[in-house]
Write a structure and sequence with these properties.
It is a single chain. Helix content is about 10%, strand content about 35%. By secondary structure, it is mostly beta strands. The strands form 2 sheets. Strands 4-3-7-6-8 form a 5-stranded mixed beta sheet, covered by helices on one side. A 3-stranded antiparallel beta sheet has the order 2-1-5, with no helix packed on it. β1 and β2 form a beta hairpin. The longest helix has 9 residues. The relative contact order is 0.21. The structure holds zinc ion (2 copies). One zinc ion binds next to loops.
Length: about 140
């Protein structure tokens, strides 16, 4: 039986992006990664650098054949500080991306996404945005 993988669909290109799954299945644990305490998941697709903002109800259980072709992809979470003067909002963004990307590569990729990362005050982050943390999600 093919495995049912938790995926979301890029809101601009429609391609499937697999979310990290728990390594060991337990009853209490959600079957996919979601950022702790957040209503939304900001995710940039690898194919086109599109920014999507998902709600948890957008997560589908579906086949994700492309993942077999991309065994070397990793799922990153990066937190930025909005670079608009005096703003100070933190912005959390994610990408599933080629395993060859470093934390710096991934941060730059996220900042180059279209239409871009926005803070809660709707400022679009520029390349001057400070990276507060960057890590590969293991769930
Ligand atoms: Zn896309
Ligand atoms: Zn801001």
């Amino acid at each position: 039986m093919p495995q049912q993988l938790p995926v979301v669909r890029c809101q601009r290109g429609g391609e499937y992006i697999a979310l990290p799954r728990p390594s060991a299945t337990t009853e209490e644990r959600p079957q996919h990664y979601w950022p702790a305490g957040r209503q939304t998941l900001v995710l940039v697709c690898q194919d086109h650098g599109h920014t999507s903002v998902f709600k948890e109800k957008d997560v589908l259980l579906g086949l994700e054949p492309a993942e077999q072709d991309l065994p070397a992809s990793r799922f990153w979470k990066v937190e930025f500080l909005c670079d608009r003067e005096g703003c100070g909002q933190k912005v959390l963004a994610h990408a599933r991306i080629d395993a060859g990307y470093t934390a710096d590569d991934t941060a730059r990729y996220l900042l180059a996404s279209r239409p871009g990362l926005q803070c809660a005050e709707n400022h679009v982050l520029t390349f001057k945005a400070q990276v507060l943390s960057a890590e590969v999600v293991s769930y």
